[in-house]
Design goal:
Blueprint lengths: L10 E4 L8 E2 L3 H4 L11 H11 L5 E4 L11 H11 L2 E6 L8 H9 E7 L5 H7 E2 L3 H16 L8 E8 L7 H11 L3 E6 L16 H18 L2 E3 L13 H13 L3 H24 L6 H5 E4 L4 E3 L10 E2 L12 H12 L4 H4 L13 H4 L7 H5 L1
Parallel strand pairs: 1-3, 1-10, 3-4, 4-5, 5-7, 7-8, 8-9
Antiparallel strand pairs: 2-6, 10-11, 11-12
């Protein structure tokens, strides 16, 4: 029996630019050389996305391989969210943040702004995010927190720090918890390193499982004590570290105190989207655990459509050649969903961090994804 049509995606990842001003040691797009490009999504394609893809969405995330604040005419992309009533998401290295009218627009349109910081000490951070300066980034985060505080409560987005965990910074994980708490951001999000090039092999914690698990547990304990929301990856065997019951209650109380009309509106739309997804799962006879295949899509600045921005994923088609209506419930994405329902996910999905049923950080196939070392295939 054919699958029922999947409801429209709730998250649209839009590659607004490939350009980046840093040369991060773990970044596949840097190693592939594409961050030196200054390409931008053409206005005609942006209009197609706004007309055909965004209706039904909740969140609009800008860029994946590049730095969003390097996007020429960034305000035009912010306008997509403003006109469509979507919640903007940005991942930034925070080196180019400047207070002004555009930043205020971004803050008002955003549900979350995520800042990449991979070390609690200047030497460690600058050895990973090559070309950046630790003091500059910390100062810009402090300014961003202050600018958010100037907004009415109803317009304030969440602020998060993101960290890629590897051998050279794992000893600073507890310090990162303390730094995030001191800076006044809402959340620290940690992800294990994905080895995309042989040069990063020695940094993978797949070689140091006991060390990784020790510091993950210590970070969880410190975050619980401070009342900081901490998103940790699983331990190396795939088991999660739960939040302590007392800390969970304190975090819930903080969440209630920070509720605003903006967050309530997004929550309401999210609940409705989850109800639609549950109805789809019931009709399909099973669940698709990957939130991208269930409700996300990635569109490159050239119009290629993919299920997600993860390494090794297929290209579904191109919006210059095929209507969106024929892609979202087309043969490729349908086959990927059917693979999960049969218990036979595509090779690119089997060990992916977005597949919670099979994600084990200590598994070498997880640390080295399909397409390892073949970056031109991913970003060429």
């Amino acid at each position: 029996m054919p699958l029922p049509p999947m409801p429209p995606p709730t998250l649209v990842n839009l590659e607004s630019t490939l350009g980046c001003n840093l040369e991060c040691v773990m970044c596949g797009s840097h190693h592939a050389g594409v961050t030196k490009k200054r390409a931008i999504m053409a206005p005609e394609l942006r209009e197609t996305v706004e007309r055909d893809v965004l209706p039904g969405a909740i969140d609009l995330s800008l860029t994946v391989a590049g730095e969003p604040f390097m996007t020429p005419r960034l305000g035009d992309f912010v306008g997509l969210a403003e006109r469509s009533g979507l919640h903007l998401q940005l991942n930034t290295n925070a080196t180019l943040i400047r207070d002004g009218a555009l930043l205020r627009r971004i803050l008002k349109a955003a549900s979350v702004i995520k800042i990449s910081v991979d070390g609690a000490r200047a030497e460690t951070y600058e050895s990973i995010r090559v070309g950046s300066r630790f003091g500059l980034v910390i100062g810009n985060i402090e300014a961003l927190v202050a600018a958010r505080a100037d907004l009415p409560r109803a317009e304030r987005p969440r602020l998060a720090i993101c960290m890629v965990l590897m051998r050279r910074n794992v000893l600073e994980l507890v310090e990162m918890v303390e730094l995030a708490h001191r800076l006044g951001v809402d959340r620290l999000e940690v992800a294990h390193l994905t080895v995309l090039v042989p040069e990063m092999e020695a940094e993978s914690l797949v070689h140091h499982p006991a060390l990784a698990d020790t510091h993950l547990a210590a970070a969880r304990a410190r975050a619980d004590a401070l009342g900081l929301r901490l998103a940790l990856p699983p331990q190396m065997d795939g088991t999660a570290l739960p939040v302590a019951p007392g800390a969970r209650l304190r975090l819930a109380a903080q969440e209630l105190a920070q509720l605003s009309g903006k967050r309530l509106g997004r929550l309401g739309r999210t609940v409705l989207a989850k109800a639609r997804a549950a109805r789809w799962s019931l009709a399909a006879g099973g669940q698709v655990p990957c939130h991208f295949l269930q409700g996300g899509v990635f569109i490159t600045l050239g119009g290629d459509v993919a299920p997600c921005p993860m390494p090794g994923r297929p290209i579904v088609g191109n919006l210059h050649e095929t209507p969106w209506s024929e892609l979202w419930n087309g043969p490729v994405l349908t086959a990927m969903r059917e693979g999960f329902l049969r218990g036979e996910p595509f090779a690119c999905c089997q060990h992916c961090s977005q597949n919670p049923h099979q994600y084990k950080p200590g598994d070498p196939q997880t640390a080295r994804p399909r397409g390892y070392g073949l970056l031109a295939e991913r970003w060429g």
